[in-house]
Amino acid sequence: MQFLKALFWFLILGVIAAFAVTNWHPVEIQLWSGLVADVNLPFLILVAFLIGLLPMMLLYHAARWRGRQRIAMLERTLADLRAVQAAPSPPTVEPAPAVDVEPTPSAVQP
Fold it and tell me: In the chain, how many domains are there?
């Protein structure tokens, strides 16, 4: 499988190199106030590709980071809830029943 992956990337790079070699001619770009920029076509295509790729890559990484943070928070919450359920409850002490003690006659003073 690794061989097929490497072969695929070499083919893609070969196509890109062939495109760059066969289309290596300057393209005029009209800028503001009469300025003209001469840029080679493969460079212009690369810049346009990166302008479209980079914002989407930033959005993807931000969403992935946010998802990982949410998963970590949910896992911590779940661990806390499991710890609360697993902790033994403190023993309850029942109060002793109230006993009516009548005073003895010797304890009573006249």
Answer: 1
User: Is the model more confident about 58 or about 101?
Assistant: 58
pLDDT score for 12:
93
Token representation of residue 66:
């946010």
* List of residues 6+ apart from 41 with CB closer than 8 A: 23, 24, 25, 26, 27
Burial class (CB in 10 A: 0-12, 13-18, 19+), 44: middle
pLDDT in tens, 3-52: 999 999 999 999 999 988 898 889 898 888 889 989 999 999 899 999 99
Contact at 8 Å (CB) between 62 and 72? no
Establish if 47 belongs to a structural domain: yes
Helix (H, G, I), strand (E, B) or coil at 39: strand
Q: How many residues does the chain have?
A: 110
Domain encompassing residue 49: 19-86
